[in-house]
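G.,

No rush on this.
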Amino acid sequence: MAQTTGRKTFKLPISPRWMIMGVVAISLLMPVNQCFGQEKKAETWMGVLKAGPQKLRLQLRLKPEKDGSYSGAMVSLDQVATPIPFDKVKRTAKQLTFEIKKLGVSFAGDMNADQTAVTGVFTQGLKFNIEFKLIDDWKPSKHVATWVGKMEAGPKQFDFQFRVFVDFQGKKSIQLDSLTEGVNGLEGGFEQKGDQITLTIPATAARVVGKLEADGKVIDGTWIQSGAKIPLVLKRIPLEQTKSPELKRPQTPKPPFDYESEDFKVQASSIDAKYSNEVVLAGTVTMPIGKGPFPAVILTSGSGPQDRDETIFEHRPFLVIADYLTKKGFAVVRYDDRGIGESEGIFVEATTADLADDLEVVFEWAKQNSKIDSKKIVLAGHSEGGIIGPIVASRNADVAGVILLAGTGVTGRKIVLNQTRRIAAVAGLPEKILDLQDELLRLVVARSKDGLPMDEDFVDSLNDVFADLSEDEKLKYGLNDVATKTILMFKSKWMEYFLEFDPATTLSKTHCSVLSLIGENDLQVDPKLNMPAIKAAMEKAGNQDFTQVLLPKLNHLFQNCETGSPSNYVIIEQTLDDTVLSEMSRWLEARFK
């Protein structure tokens, strides 16, 4: 058994489902025009979804198209994600409907007479009554000032940039950029009365109130949000020092490419009769110039709804990998998760086992491609994809190899408990809070395992875990409604399966060549917890070609970093460290070229 550990070769749905989704995913939305007259204009609608004690502010953006139809996106302002585009949306004088397949979300509502409000039913598993109202916005014209500041909110630190604009009537407004989070362009209001400055940010229900110093260069202020009051000093900087709100991603490949690229679609049932579902998977295959057949790598994404590039915070790691390996002589296949991008199906109803079926469909399709060597196909998966690959390999002897990119070796229960504490510890939470969070999670995980109802009585018992904390402490450490939020996170088919599935069961039946790469600073897949478990499973399998590499200073996304905190994924410009690419390439070339 070939093995290397701890090799020192080189210099961020959250949770195992990459920051596991709650009721809806969040994002940002730039406010747009309010009017709907003879010429259709863009609109912004706002509503509050009441899910038990939790209230989620939802914002809808509607954009008219030339053919008279609409496109747009939904935004949950109280959660963290990217804008979620509508798969279907229809807006008439009497009705508004939309659908988002990957979240299992739909809405149908009736307009009031003056078309300023729409009342209807929002469906995501459960049904919720909700009213959306058409809201005003402003259109800043000239950038006149930039203020920057650093805010410490409990264990978290935020770098803020407020850009001030003035319109043709002399009215000022702002755009807030949270540089730490990669959240840009949140629009708001600017008011000044004497030396008193007030900045309002409707999207976050926050405001900054402060005093302008005599020199006009400092605002000594306070960030006020949800009852919390946090000091925030803002300093004025020259306009030319304003940071671009655009995220820099220098590794993203740019055309022209010196290889071939072709999009494909494959229906599950057309590949094998055992796939009775009507899932249609769409993806891209890149190939070197030439006749082939070429050895191939199929990329499978991590947890959460992912497109074929595994896009996250505008990083496109699978595109980077495909570009690199194709230039090395490999065909590379990558595909959208079911219900995402151009793939059909419903993502939120899928478990890891279902996603393994999808990979198997793509694998069978690749075997039938005349330009791919059917005896040299490697399955490379990131995070949850590192669980899915061995599932398929364990039941298909013609899989040539498996690459685990931050793949796990222990049950989801162990992953959830481990990563939650490690991420919170790096964020600076004190031991007392870490222990209380551990207790809460253990109770929820145990309840889930036993199949008992997570009712109001159980919520009350969970809240008792934090009974000794003051309201200020709960606010400081983000523990308000934490019991309800945690339960919502665990109420999914995917989570139920993930918690109990043990990757070691399929790893121990994987006999093909296996490469396992894990970052030293990975807080989501702890190398100390998972590397020994993966090694033990490989030994149980009697695998004679297993290589395991610990990559120094890399996080879960394989970015070079200091702490591994998921909050830094967005601010790190590097998409993927070169060490990962070289390790993959060297291992592949030694076996399949």
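When you get to it, here's the other one too:
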Amino acid sequence: MSDLVLGTAGHVDHGKTSLVRALTGVDLDRLPEERARGITIVLGFVPLVLPDGRVAGLVDVPGHEKLVRTMVSGATGMDAVMLCVSAVEGVMPQTREHLAVLRLLGVPRLIAVQTMADLVDDELLELAADELRELLADSPWPDAPIVATSTVSARGIESLRAVLGALPTSARGGGGPFRMPVDRAFVRRGFGTVVTGTVWGGRLQDGGEVEVYPGGQRARVRGIQVHGRAVTAGTAGSRAALNLTGIEIDDVGRGIWVTSPGAVEDSRVIDVTYDHLESSPLLVGEPGVLVLHGTREVSGRLYPIGVEGLEPGASIRGQLHLGEPLPCLPGDRFVVRRASPAATLGGGVILDPWTTVIRKRRHAEAVVELDRLAGGDRLVYLERAGTLGLTEGQCVSRCGALVGTRLGERRYADAAVAAFREALREGLAERHAAEPLSPGVNRKVAWVGALRALDERSFLSFLEREATEGRVRLDGGRVRLPDWQVSLTVEQAVWRATVLALAEAAGYDGAEITAERPDHEALVFLLRDRGEIDVIAGRVYFGPVLAQLTEAVRGYFVDQRTLEPASFKALTGQSRRTAIPLLEWLDAHGVTRRVGDARIKG
């Protein structure tokens, strides 16, 4: 077995399928219509045994101009391609379009194959080869080997086998989630639903669970085949057939994706790098286009970012707004076509499938972000998540590592943490100004504005972090700015002194304080919070007096096991009317515990 996918490309009637038959012995034009017309209409797949014994997957694509969509589906995932050019006709329109598609899809390697070499003399064959070299000079494959072949005389077939045998195994990484765009789906009797495709990434174990996109329906794998042989796992770069349970044939077909659960999202807005072909016309505005990704085609609009129009040959940052979901990840390649008149316009690389609509006022900022993403700076994904942050799983999958600041179970970029910090500072300052007698703000009251983007656990984690770094002070359930303290006016200070004096003089009887001031309640709360007083059954008690009572009761329990109401009255000199509220206060503070009518040590 080999994780290597080869393919054909080229103009219609330039001998692609005949070449595949010469290499493999298999005729992939199996449909009656294909045999009658002598052209390939659907994708064909066949294993190819290489000279070193490796078995590669070979994909034969149609060359007709009306079947470019099918060609793109087949070219998706190729590791190398045989660009077939007739030695008789030379370079033709679909040769150029297929070459453009292959460049846009980033196919790593190309072999130029001159077909029908037996129909021309050596001089014409060399002229055709020169034309091919000129065509490839400005492509990603300027040094591609050129092999002259004939399927009639078998000329060059073994030389082509040798060139193919020298190709390295697929360079796709085995890491990341499993993803496979489906190019065929059918029902096999006794097995059920079967889907086939080229595995783009990751590894899928037989018996594993998968997710089908768009939609996110779950299914389970109960059999994997590569080149018709059962295997225990499907890996990146292989042509695989998956037998799926838990899903019907009506729910799958060409254009759907089979992935690891949670690997992708159904994106409708995507940031991209877009290359407009030199042969494409000037486009202005937000043109309606067809977007081809994997084996899927969706309609949408292309919005240039930072530029007004698309000049031929331009390379820009842009945003695709799609009419249907497109399950994709950063680094995926796509092709853009015009529906009418049909033509390939360009294509590019997906940068951010988790983006939101970018308004024109943010274009300059967005271009900087997308330039960073194109340069490999994945921290941008965390920054773009803003105050929503990312789960740790999302952070690892998008950014490649756990970066940023952890608050609760989520991660946030520095800018988001700074926004939380500023919102907390402003909120506390406003509350301090509105409630000058309050020693602090209830934590939940401070959880407002931008801070509501944090769940409660994350918010409390943020407060603890801010307190550790000295930006706020925490006091029980309240929070305050570090330099905030209550400052009494002269009148309030006089009132405080008067109340404390009255409460102290009242002793265990407590003092009755009338509410003559509009800020009476706030002042009482302040003094209670400071421990200077407490209010029991409507009467004000001096803090030190209650501390004295607490010590007296604890001393009582040194020699006694229970405290009866009568004993408490004797201890404090109080009547039943004032003694019972004091006993209840002692219960509430854990000094005593009620058992029947008596108290025991708390």
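The chain has 16 helices and 34 strands. The CA atoms of residues 179 and 259 lie 4 Å apart.

Enjoy the weekend,
O.
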